[in-house]
What we know:
The longest helix has 13 residues, at about 45-60. This protein has helices at about 45-60, 105-110; strands at about 5-15, 15-20, 35, 35-40, 60-75, 80-90, 100-105. The protein is mainly β. Bound molecules: 8-OXO-2'-deoxyguanosine-5'-triphosphate.
Amino acid sequence: xxxxxxxxxxxxxxxxxxxxxxxxxxxxxxxxxxxxxxxxxxxxxxxxxxxxxxxxxxxxxxxxxxxxxxxxxxxxxxxxxxxxxxxxxxxxxxxxxxxxxxxxxxxxxxxxxxxxxxxx
Length: 120
Ligand SMILES: Nc1nc2c([nH]c(=O)n2[C@H]2C[C@H](O)[C@@H](COP(=O)(O)OP(=O)(O)OP(=O)(O)O)O2)c(=O)[nH]1
């Protein structure tokens, strides 16, 4: 049976643009673009996990609004269920802690990035 991995991602919108971040050259999906976020820890609510991940990865605070969507993707290492939420910056400015690049893009521009498979 495949390992189930529950992941949350933030679709942070400012001025009609969405924050996209690039994974480092180490670890899974080197160099791929994704929504900031990460794995839900045992006993954690999805929104709490997302707030924690954004503090850890971007050193800022977001307001988490409605769910965008939930997708399920089978990888070789397990099945990732990715739930994304609409977010707004609440305090601070995103500062990259783990990722190597960030860009704010319009919905039209976003499709041009090389995304992690579950995000497509
Ligand atoms: N954060 C994030 N992860 C994604 C996205 N799309 C996607 O397939 N993933 C996958 C990559 C990983 O297999 C998993 C999340 O892993 P992660 O490395 O970001 O999680 P984490 O911050 O909890 O990291 P770690 O402590 O386990 O190292 O979900 C996405 O848009 N955002």
